[in-house]
Amino acid sequence: MTADAFLAARPRVRADVVVGPSLVRGAARIHLLKDPRTGSRLEVGPKEHFLITRLDGTRTLAEIGSEYTGEFGTRLGEAQWGQMLGLLHSRSLLDGGPTPATSPAAAPQDRPSGILAGRTRLVADAPALMDRLHCATAPVRRPVTLTVLTALTVALLAAVAVQAGTLWRQTGETAGRPVVLLAVGCVLWCSLALHELAHGLFARAWGGRATEIGLRWVLGATYLYCRVEDVQFLGSRARKVATACAGAFANLLFLVPFYPVWALLPSDAQARPALGALLLLGTVCAIANLLPLPPLDGYKALGHAVGVTGLADGSRTFVALAARAAFRRGPGLAAYPPRLRLVYGGFALLTAVQSVALLVAAGAALHAVLPDDLAALSWWLPPAALAAVLLLWALGVLGRSLRARRQEAAPATPSATAPRRRPVTPPIDPAGHHSRAGTGPGPIPDPSAHARKGEMSAPHSETQVTQGHAPSETVVALDGVTKRYGAVTALDGVGLDVRRGEFFGILGPNGAGKTTLVEIVEGLREADSGTVTVLGRSPWPRDTALLARIGVQTQASAFFARLTAGEHLRTVAALYGMDEATARTALERVGLTDKENARVDHLSGGQRQRLAVATALLHEPELIFLDEPTAALDPEARRELWGLLRSLRSEGRTIICTTHYLDEAEALCDRVAIIARGRVVALDTPRNLIRSLAAPARLLLPAAGLSPEAALALEGVDRATVEGDELVIETTAVNRVLTALGDLVDIESVTVRTATLEDAYLSLTGTGKEHLR
């Protein structure tokens, strides 16, 4: 298939695929997709969402690519389209593709049930039960009826507030009668069933699905639960907030009939204190469940309201980054726009205030209940209980971390008989069909074959394409890393993190500390202070289990010089316990098959560089370190290696790369860290670093065609100067100035240059003479 025919195709995403709303996780924006036939879900980034929503069968790939260029400033080539369409095809989301399996997605796996904690299902077919309840409660869910019920719950809250003193005294009386208090607790426990069913009913009314109804127990406490899926696909935020608050609404509605009975009973009736305790405790439980504290319903409602998923985790990360930034450590808060800073910072402050208020309220309640001789302890018991809970939680996290490390260590050594292989995506045509020899359109070209055209860098993808790993999982983390060589400080409190599947670039002038930083992460050097973790383990002292999972290409790579390239790779493969075919595959990946029988010391500098990369990739590592991988390569070989690196990233591998080619970093890297004088002076995506400059565009045209004075007279021109035989116009209104220039000069003679990563680099470091374009 020719390139023109490829870009003229009009693929279409299946019409029944549900596109969810835009959400925020951490500092990143994500979008959700759902396949209603299989129940599977897909999480994509803004760029992928932009493309998927335009694959409607009415526009060609070329037309969508033009829209993409206008939105994101980069071009899509066949390689990137191949990755995107391959992903959609593998998920059976393209129209005309293979029919997806209709079996529902597997429910999330819980820990095995035990005596202290566990769960059991109470309903064999929860969706069917919810469907019947949905039909039975249809009259109740009418707007008029819901308005009346809401008014009743508000009236109940007002009445309980007015009678709070009387209800409190009656609750105290009931506390002295354990049997009656137990009966009140049983009634409230039954209201939990209505609480959970209300969540399911509200979600079911708007297209959600209750997948499981059962009983949980933790340390002797039992409660009912209703697992609801697809809450994020309910539509408006109001629906999601209403679903989260439905449980508390049901609890209050459950109490409404008890209030008139309590109010009508004589003051000396024996049942009146019990009803008073039921009203007060039930109301407090319902209102407390609306507090924005995880895992309460109020926390979920707040997350839905602000459009943020994982609000607590994001807030903790934000506060940690803010604290480190206060001491000039870590990447800072540049990735967080003002709204997110307000959301995460406000939630952290709200959580702190709520926690203090709850501790004070608990202390006051205990002070009123406990005998006088124990009243002094009432203010200390809540903080002590909270500290105990936090300690148990920390121990649990530590235990899970240790178990995970042991599990990771077990399969770390490569098998001598079963080397790891790259996953292969079946070739497809733009319509989503499997390609067959001799029939139909040809397969999408291999991404590496088209990367040499330099069409664009691969779009930053947050799509979950590797199973078992979340896209935000941190595989390399540095905190306060310092390294000195005598009086010279190579690294000064460096802190950064690299996420799984990310292409991470490290830039900086000569002597900035780049190589020292990478060697510390690789385990070749020991940091003087700070912490370093790689794939959940410490790289120092040398960890042989970790070495089997990483691949390293250094500036001065060592070879078996008197061996041929093929013999060298076969020797390294044998050390990893892999067969000889692995060496041949590695040579093919870097384009050195014609040099298989050439001695290493007879290879050119560029060929030796490619052999070093092949050696690093030989054992199929999940984390790859590349130190200036394209140095000494000619432009065509550089582009070919770019294609290889893009394909490695598409397989889910994590790549950390140092380079002096700023165009290479801009084309390949998801994020870059710029290091100067041993510190991280910037850490962000190349696009965000360029945007932060707010630099004007420069229009270049022959100086003979227009004078600087005439250019300055045009609306939108900020500056006009003559440099050699060219007139250079600086402007922040490119389209307006180009329109005006079209009436004065030949528009084809005008060259537009916008800010690049090199401009951002020079602005941040004040140097960069050794960097090339």
UniProtKB/TrEMBL annotation:
The keyword Transmembrane helix applies. InterPro entries: AAA+_ATPase, ABC_transporter-like_ATP-bd, ABC_transporter-like_CS, ABC_transporter_ATP-binding, P-loop_NTPase. SUPFAM superfamilies: P-loop containing nucleoside triphosphate hydrolases. Residues 460-469 have a biased composition (Polar residues). Residues 409-418 have a biased composition (Low complexity). Keywords: Antibiotic resistance, ATP-binding, Membrane, Nucleotide-binding, Transmembrane, Transmembrane helix, Transport. The chain crosses the membrane at residues 146-168, 174-194, 241-262, 274-293, 342-367, 379-398. This is ABC transporter domain-containing protein. It comes from Streptomyces siamensis. The lineage of its organism: Bacteria, Bacillati, Actinomycetota, Actinomycetes, Kitasatosporales.
